[in-house]
Design a protein that fits this description.
The structure holds 2 protein chains of 2 kinds. Helices cover 45% and strands 10% of the residues of chain A. By secondary structure, chain A is mainly alpha-helical. In chain A, a hairpin with a 2-residue loop joins strand 14 (468-470) and strand 15. In chain A, helix 5 packs parallel to helix 7 and helix 16 (380-391) crosses helix 18 (430-443). The longest helix of chain A has 21 residues, at 288-308. In chain A, 50% of the residues are buried. Residues 1-35 and 552-570 of chain A have low confidence and may be disordered. Mean pLDDT of chain B is 86; it is low at 1-33 and 36-40. Chain B is of the alpha/beta class. Chain B has helices at residues 5-15, 106-113, 126-134, 169-177, 193-213, 218-242, 266-285, 310-316, 327-348, 406-415; strands at residues 46-52, 67-68, 86-92, 143-146, 156-158, 161-162, 291-296, 351-352, 355-356, 361-366, 380-385, 396-399. The longest helix of chain B is centred in the middle third of the chain and has 25 residues, at 218-242. In chain B, a hairpin with a 2-residue loop joins strand 8 and strand 9. Chain B contains 10 helices and 12 strands. The two termini of chain B are 41 Å apart. The radius of gyration of chain B is 22 Å and the shape is globular. The chains are: A mainly alpha, B alpha/beta. Chains A and B meet through strand 1, helix 3, helix 6, helix 7 and strand 17 of A and strand 5, strand 6, helix 5, helix 6 and helix 8 of B.
């Protein structure tokens, strides 16, 4: 099978640059007898959000994206890492083609083209290479995240000319050439070009344009803007000052919120909400609107905590502050007075939970407790597993074959009335007890929140016992669990691991983990766990732009990467 | 004679009945209705997969006797009307050989690709191998559908190139029978200038990328090749759009398709199955594809208003002592068998000469666990329906205890002309076909 990443092969003793992949420069083996070193760097498929955001940046937010994107898949906990393995299937290509032609048609629409195509063709019914060329070069640089090379520009101008002649329509021809650009791999995939690292002879780093892309996709979840491309072109990005200047500009921009949202939504598996169903008979308050609001609430809570208010990352597990809509307030059983005219979107209002309220932090919010539950009841095991995997970066094994689960959560069992009792009965099976010890003590602390997110104190009439422990720290309820997670050293370390993997698009190598990523963890603690400071540390770290060679590309993860297209629930 | 097909078919759609095709222009077919009269060429085979999680109730589906003339056990009684066209394979198993078992997923990977991948290193699925052989020059290599509205599918060209399912019958209709569909029986044909312009642009792009390809290292080439295969599908579609299609008398363009309710409730999934069955039947009869994949997302299916999903029922319902099986699970399975029966009947209702579309179709029915209650890896139920135009024998029960399930996949692939003499990896590798059914 193919290696999942783009691979560069480089003769150690002799470098010969040749015209390369997709029209860019790449390094190749020069002589067969030369010992070779191979470099790996992911070639990531754009996510739907990134695609949409680039189109809005280039052509304005009014352009609608009409079509369906291929679903992504998760590798080592992140879709962004899975994106490095993702290709495009024939049916996916059909969709990209449909989306591209619809975008091109909107751009070439009579009402828009005067604004978006800045030159005037000599005639509406004939080709005009000069005008087509200037449009395609300008737009192409933003779409491909680097200037088009001569060959690419020539090909697109030729295409526009041929199509315009055939259709007797300049804009229709130009539109087809633009649509083609939007389906080309240079646009749909983020491939990072390599160049020799002048500070470390014999080693490689990503080039300035790739650097610009890494910065903008990580910090803004979109392609680089003109200023960033200019800094790549004039070499500024390769100087410490020039890089710092761009980083400061980008971290100060409101667009940082897009980057943070994309990262946290990926980390928390929010795409699974698309397949989440709840039983209406049991949770009448839960609806699609609630599912959407719940994600938004958790994202707002996190963004406010780590960015707007610049607080300690670990506060997301304990904060009493959040935002609510009326639909959510109904589930939280708190009063929320707002007046929304008929048909207007729901208002978001800031809300602070009372000191005595059982809720605090994101773990007790509707998003977390409903996403990691069954359609008709809660699941301490799913919640404990999610908490370990998402926020502490620990892997929980799947159940083995040939195990009987019948007793686990038979909610009508006359003897075992609560989940704790049922799990205890199940844990009498020695095969099961090991894994359940890892997940259940934390999951049971969240039993006050049912599968639809509402608070309860009893299950089947029996008072709930929500005590538990996490790595030696005991607690009696969910807020105690939140404090235990916030105090657990694995939580901030996990954020650093996830964020670096997300920014790199791959699982860091063992060497990277023990060297620069480890010192970033130390730095994160020195920064009192401020997330923007962590982002700055990552993107100003020179090693972040180095490309490890394959010899030391032993993955940090001990086992084969965990992959899931859609996780089955247990 | 001229009649308004759209009107006739719209009536049938609205009725929600397993539809009957319109009269066939038998004069186009040879005496047996199995080949075109003018060319004598046999109608090509159609291959379909039906993947359904959670198995069947152990002990309730295996026929008592092997070989031809078996009698259906209680669970598969429903399929009696098609018994002569169905093969049942029992006793086979999945081999995981110490690899971690991601329940419901690992076994599905073996069923579809013959191997357990490391990460995304998976190979092509059975349907993709067959599509490459019989459907590569069709407008769609394959069409994937999911009864619950999700994009989940087990069809893949490789572990990094998955073919997502269509979850909405209306979207599938638009994709297949939208403006780019060329009715093979239309009286006149005029190539669309826009399609011609698109074709010239696309050929410039392909030529450019092929030039770039020559300068790449092996791994990059492989990655770009996957992409180029997908681009070729678009080129292929344009070629087809620009050629006058050969007439297909059995092809009828269905009327507008209304949006159905996608979802995890049994009734919705059953309704979707009906609509998809009809769409796929039309797509095959109209020569748009020869391969389809149906995904029954059984895990999350539930009765309306009930908390219990099928998946939860398999693990949590007690075995009824009097009956000897899980009652609710049995009901779920019965529902699925009925839906499958309707699906087959729908293909059988597409008339082609004296026969039907089902005559040249071969469907492979697979599942993930023999006994879902305990995630068992053995005694897997497998079915094939139809002979693919006489390419395998039917009406046979084959018991092959302890053999890898890949024997059935290999047999099916060989029958449809895939040049392979073995399939699967390690314990799941086999070079033994099921000789009892080889035609």
């Amino acid at each position: 099978m193919n290696r999942p990443m783009g691979r560069y092969v480089l003769g150690v003793t002799c470098l010969v640059a040749v015209a390369g992949l997709l029209g860019m420069a790449v390094f190749s083996v020069s002589r067969a007898a030369t010992p070779t070193v191979e470099y790996e760097t992911p070639v990531r498929r754009l996510t739907p959000a990134q695609y949409t955001s680039i189109i809005a940046d280039v052509f304005g937010p009014a352009i609608t994206i009409g079509g369906r994107f291929e679903p992504g898949f998760r590798v080592d906990g992140l879709l962004e890492v899975g994106a490095g393995d993702a290709n495009i299937s024939p049916s996916g290509m059909e969709q990209y083609d449909i989306i591209a032609r619809s975008i091109a048609a909107q751009v070439m629409d009579e009402r828009r083209r005067e604004l978006l195509v800045r030159c005037q063709p000599q005639a509406l019914t004939a080709p005009d290479d000069a005008c087509a060329g200037s449009f395609l070069a300008e737009v192409g640089e933003l779409l491909f995240r680097r200037p088009l090379n001569d060959r690419e520009l020539r090909m697109h101008v030729t295409s526009a000319r041929e199509a315009a002649s055939r259709l007797d329509d300049f804009y229709a021809g130009l539109g087809l050439s633009l649509a083609a650009m939007l389906t080309e791999p240079q646009f749909l995939f983020r491939r990072e070009e390599l160049e020799p690292d002048p500070t470390r002879p014999g080693e490689m780093r990503i080039d300035a344009y790739a650097k610009a892309s890494r910065l903008s996709f990580f910090l803004w979840n979109s392609g680089p803007d003109r200023a960033l491309l200019a800094a790549a072109k004039n070499g500024d990005l390769n100087t410490d000052d020039g890089l710092a200047q761009q980083v400061t500009r980008m971290l100060a921009s409101p667009r940082l919120e897009d980057g943070l949202r994309a990262f946290f939504a990926d980390m928390m598996h929010f795409e699974d909400f698309a397949n989440l169903t709840k039983d209406n008979a049991i949770y009448p308050k839960f609806s699609n609107q609630v599912a959407e609001d719940a994600q938004e609430q958790t994202l707002r809570t996190i963004i406010d905590t780590v960015w707007r208010e610049g607080r300690d990352y670990r506060d997301i597990f304990t904060t009493k502050e959040t935002h609510l809509t009326r639909a959510l307030a109904a589930i939280y059983q708190v009063p929320l007075a707002t007046r929304v005219p008929n048909g207007a979107p729901e208002k978001w209002l800031p809300y602070t939970f009372d000191e005595n309220d059982p809720r605090a932090g994101v773990l007790m919010q509707v998003a977390f407790v409903t996403l990691h539950s069954h359609p008709g009841r809660s699941s301490p095991t799913l919640r404990g597993k999610a908490l370990r995997e998402i926020f502490l970066c620990q892997k929980v094994p799947a159940p083995p074959g040939d195990v009987n689960f019948t007793i686990v959560q038979d909610t009508s069992n006359p003897v075992h009335k609560t989940a704790r009792e049922r799990l205890a009965a199940h844990a009498e099976n020695p095969v099961c007890v090991g894994c359940h010890k890892i997940t259940d003590p934390m999951g049971l602390a969240l039993e006050n929140f049912d599968g639809g997110g509402s608070y309860r104190t009893r299950e089947n009439g029996v008072p709930l016992n929500t005590s538990g422990e996490l790595d030696g720290v005991a607690f009696t309820d969910g807020t105690g669990l939140g404090r235990a997670v916030a105090g657990n050293a694995a939580a901030p370390a996990c954020l650093v691991d996830r964020m670096t993997a997300y920014a790199l698009g791959r699982t860091p190598t063992r060497n990277e983990s023990s060297a620069w990523i480890s010192s970033i963890k130390t730095g994160f603690a020195q920064d009192a766990y401020r997330v923007p400071a962590l982002m700055r540390r990552i993107v100003t770290e020179p090693a972040f732009y180095r490309v490890p060679s394959i010899d030391n590309t032993t993955r940090a993860a001990l086992s084969a990467p965990a992959i899931s297209q859609e996780e089955g629930s247990r | 004679m001229k009649f308004n097909r759209r009107t006739v078919l719209r009536g049938l759609m609205g009725g929600g009945v397993v539809s009957v095709g319109l009269p066939v222009f038998d004069c186009f077919l040879n005496g047996n209705g199995t080949a075109w009269a003018d060319t004598g060429q046999a109608l090509p085979p159609v291959f379909g997969t039906w993947f359904q999680h959670l198995g069947l109730n152990p002990g309730m589906w295996e026929p008592k006797t092997t070989g031809p003339g078996y009698e259906n056990n209680i669970q598969l009684k429903l399929l009696d009307p098609y018994r002569e066209r169905i093969n049942i394979y029992s006793g086979m198993k999945y081999f995981i050989e110490g690899r971690p078992l991601q329940t419901h997923t690992t076994t599905a990977q073996i069923a579809t690709t013959g191997a357990i991948p490391f990460g995304t290193d998976g190979g092509p699925s059975v349907d993709a191998k067959i599509a490459e052989q019989i459907s590569a020059r069709k407008r769609f290599r394959s069409l994937e559908v999911n009864l619950s509205g999700s994009r989940k599918s087990y069809s893949q060209r490789s572990g990094t190139s998955l073919n997502p399912s269509e979850g909405s019958p209306a979207a599938l209709y638009k994709r297949v029978f939208g403006p780019e569909f060329k009715d093979p029986n239309a009286a006149t044909f005029e190539p669309d200038p826009l399609a011609m312009a698109r074709q010239s642009v696309l050929s410039n792009v392909s030529e450019h990328l092929n030039q770039v390809r020559r300068e790449l290292g092996a791994a990059d080439k492989a990655r770009l090749d996957e992409y180029l295969t997908s681009i070729r599908q678009i080129e292929q579609q344009l070629v087809i759009e620009l050629e006058k299609p050969a007439p297909l008398p059995a092809c009828h363009v269905p009327g507008e398709m209304h949006e159905a309710t996608p979802g995890t409730v049994l009734e919705d999934a059953a309704a979707n199955a009906q609509l998809f069955a009809r769409m796929l039947g039309y797509a095959a009869a109209c020569g748009q594809t020869q391969v389809f994949n149906v995904m029954v997302d059984s895990m999350n299916l539930r009765k309306a208003g009930s908390a219990y999903t099928w998946h939860m029922a398999t693990h949590e319902e007690s075995v009824d002592e009097a009956l000897g099986y899980q009652k609710d699970v049995f009901e779920f399975n019965t529902w699925a068998n009925q839906v499958f029966l309707n699906f087959i009947a729908s293909l059988d209702a597409v008339k082609e000469g004296p026969g039907t579309l089902l005559d040249r179709t071969l469907i492979l029915w697979q599942t993930d666990h023999g006994d879902a209650r305990v995630h068992s890896l053995e005694k897997m139920p497998i079915l094939t329906v139809g002979s693919g135009g006489g390419r395998i024998k039917t009406g046979i029960h084959v018991a092959a205890p302890g053999d890898p399930v890949t024997r059935v996949s290999l047999t099916v692939m060989q029958a449809l002309g895939v040049p392979l003499n073995q399939w699967g990896e390690r314990g799941n590798n086999t070079s033994r076909t099921i000789t009892e059914v080889v035609a």
